[in-house]
Amino acid sequence: MKEVASEAEVSIATVSRVINKSGYVSPDLEERVQRAMKDLNYQPSSLARSLRRQETQTIGVLIPELDHPFFSALCFSIEKTLFASDYRALICSAEEDREKENAYIEMLLRQRVDGVIIVPTGHSIENIYRLLKNSVPVVVLDRDMPELTANRVVSDNYQGAYDGTKHLIELGHTNIGVIGGPAYSEPMVDRIQGIRTATEANGLVIPPERMIIGSDQQFEMGYSATKRLMQESDPPTAIFALTDVMAVGALHAASKMGLSVPGDVSIMGFDDIPLAKYCIPTLTTIAQPIYEMGEVAVKLILGYLREPTQAFETVRLNTHLVHRKSTAERK
Prior knowledge:
By secondary structure, the chain is an alpha/beta fold. Helix content is about 45%, strand content about 15%. The chain folds into three domains: about 1-45, 434 Repressor (Amino-terminal Domain), CATH 1.10.260.40; about 55-155 and about 290-320, Response regulator (Rossmann fold), CATH 3.40.50.2300; about 155-290, Rossmann fold. It has helices spanning about 1-10, 10-20, 25-40, 45-55, 70-85, 100-110, 125-135, 155-170, 185-200, 220-230, 245-255, 290-305, and strands at about 60-65, 90-95, 115-120, 140, 150-155, 175-180, 210-215, 240, 265-270, 285, 315, 320. The strands form two sheets. A six-stranded parallel β-sheet has the order 2-1-3-4-5-11, sandwiched between helices.
C-alpha cells in the first residue's frame, strides 16, 4: 500500500479509502490510485480488509433443492445481483433434509457470513433463530414464516392459484384435478387455499381424491399423480399442477397414456420456469417473478447491512397468468 501511495503521489490514508470504499476521494485521486495499483500489479488482501471491517463480503444462500429449476433460477439471480455489489454467494442446498440443513447452518456460522438468504424448509425455524441469535441478518425468501421478525420476500401464491383456477373454469372445466407439494410448504398452503376460494366462488368443490398432495420428487409426483387421476372412471378434464416441474411430469404421463393435451386434458403449472415455454405443448402457467425475487432479497439484506436500524419489510410480489398451448376450452 505504501508503494501505491508513493506511485500515485497520495497519502496511505487515501489509498486505504479507495480500496475500502470508505470516505470521500475525488475522482482525480481515485483514478491515480487505481492506475498505480494496476501498474504495480497490486492486489488488496480481501481477508485483511474483511478482518478490519469485520465483514467477509459473503452472503449465505440456503435453498431446499438446487436441482429444481425454480431454485436454480433464484440462485442465479441472487448470485448475479450480489456479484454486482462486490459480494459473493455461498450457495447451500439442504435437500429438505434436517441434518443437512443443520450442517450448512454450522458452516455458515463458521465462515462468518455477513448474512443469509434462506428459503425455509419444514425444519428451518430453529436454524433461523440460531442465525439471529448470532447476530446474522436473515432474509426469508419464497416460503414465509410470519412468526419471525425478519425481512421477507414472497410472491402472491394465493392470488396466483385463484387466477389459475379461474382460468380453467372460464374454459369450461368443472372437473379439475390438483397436484401439490408438501403440506408444510407455505406457498403450497396458499395455493391450495386460492384454488378452494375460486372453486367455491363458482359453486364447485374439488373432492379430496382429486387433490393429490405429496413430498415425492416433483417430476415423479406429477407423473404418478396424473396417471392415477386419468385412470379414474370419470377423469378430470383439467389438471392444475402446483409447480411447473410437476406439470412437466403430468405432460409426460399424458403422453405415455396416449392422451392429447389439451384435447383430452388441459394441464397448467405454476412458476414459469424457463422450460415452460419449450414443452410440447408449451405450458400454461402462473408466472412468479423469479429473478425479481432474488434481486429484492439481495437489496434487503445489503440494505440491512448498511443500516441495521431500518424497519423490517415484507415484500409481496405479484404473479400473473401466462396462457400457452397446454390449456383449452373443454370439449
